[in-house]
Write a structure and sequence with these properties.
The complex is a heterodimer of chains A (119) and B (107). In chain A, 0% of the residues lie in helices and 54% in strands. Chain A has 119 residues and is mainly beta. In chain A, strands 2, 4, 5, 6, 9, 10 and 11 form a seven-stranded mixed sheet that branches. In chain A, a hairpin with a 4-residue loop joins strand 7 and strand 8. Chain A is globular and about 40 Å long. Chain B has 107 residues and is mainly beta. Helix content of chain B is 0%, strand content 48%. In chain B, the strands form two sheets. In chain B, strands 2-10-9-4-5-6 form a six-stranded mixed sheet, with no helix packed on it. In chain B, strands 1-3-8-7 form a four-stranded antiparallel sheet, with no helix packed on it. In chain B, a hairpin with a 6-residue loop joins strand 4 and strand 5. Chain B is globular. Classes of the chains: A mainly beta (119), B mainly beta (107). Chains A and B meet through strand 5 and strand 10 of A and strand 4, strand 5 and strand 9 of B.
Chain lengths: 119, 107
């Protein structure tokens, strides 16, 4: 069974750093891209970026490039989304998702990690 | 970046109704489009990919059509479980943008 299990909710202050995680199981981790999607409170879905776990090649949304970092640890089949300096506007639910092989759509999703940043 | 729009933004319908949601892309995306359903407090769930391919396990009352810049998601007979928000997403080129969503609520 394919599973993506995300880390728990976080409450941080602006300027702090944060890493949230997405542990994958039930499939070959390096064979499928992982995507991160943001959803601000009461708003729609926003594509953050995606990583190829086989070589860590990463593509970011231009609006978030330089502000977030996506990475993986293949030894523990886990993907990460990282901020070095949070902003209040980073407050949102963040989902990781696994793409279908070689495609741009995601068919398995994590449960989401709620990030709250106070100013 | 390719911009995605959806109409309507909100749709009020009754059980048994036929429902159609439209998604438009700012430039041709061929058939590189997916539709997702999201219920409150849950992650999105893919319904349709490649514009018209039904994802495994998704009821056949859902269907997708279109190509290039105009696409539709149709629910042939709305069921109680279908009241949710629906998003289109292109994956033609980066960034893979989503539409703003269409909320289907009870009339």
């Amino acid at each position: 069974e394919v599973r993506l299990v995300q880390s728990g909710a976080e409450v941080k202050k602006a300027g702090e750093s944060l890493t949230i995680s997405c542990q994958a199981s039930g499939y070959s981790f390096t064979s499928y891209w992982i995507t991160w999607v943001r959803q601000m409170p009461g708003k729609g879905l926003e594509w953050v970026g995606r990583i190829d776990p086989s070589d860590s090649y990463t593509v970011y949304s231009p609006s978030l490039q330089g502000h977030v970092t996506i990475s993986v640890d293949r030894s523990i089949t886990t993907a990460y989304l990282q901020w070095s300096s949070l902003k209040a506007s980073d407050s949102a639910m963040y989902y990781c998702a696994r793409h279908e092989f070689g495609t741009g759509w995601a068919n398995y999703w994590g449960q989401g990690t709620l990030v709250t940043v106070s100013s | 970046d390719i911009q995605m729009t959806q109409s309507p933004s909100t749709l009020s319908a009754s059980v048994g109704d036929r429902v159609t949601i439209t998604c438009r892309a700012s430039q041709s995306i061929n058939s590189w489009l997916a539709w997702y359903q999201q219920k409150p407090g849950e992650p999105p769930k893919v319904l349709i990919h490649t514009a018209s391919e039904l994802e495994s396990g998704v009821p056949s009352r859902f269907s997708g059509s279109g190509s290039a810049t105009e696409f539709t998601l149709t629910i042939s007979s709305l069921q109680p479980d279908d009241f949710a928000t629906y998003y289109c997403q292109h994956y033609h080129s980066y960034p893979y943008t989503f539409g703003p969503g269409t909320k289907v609520d009870i009339k």
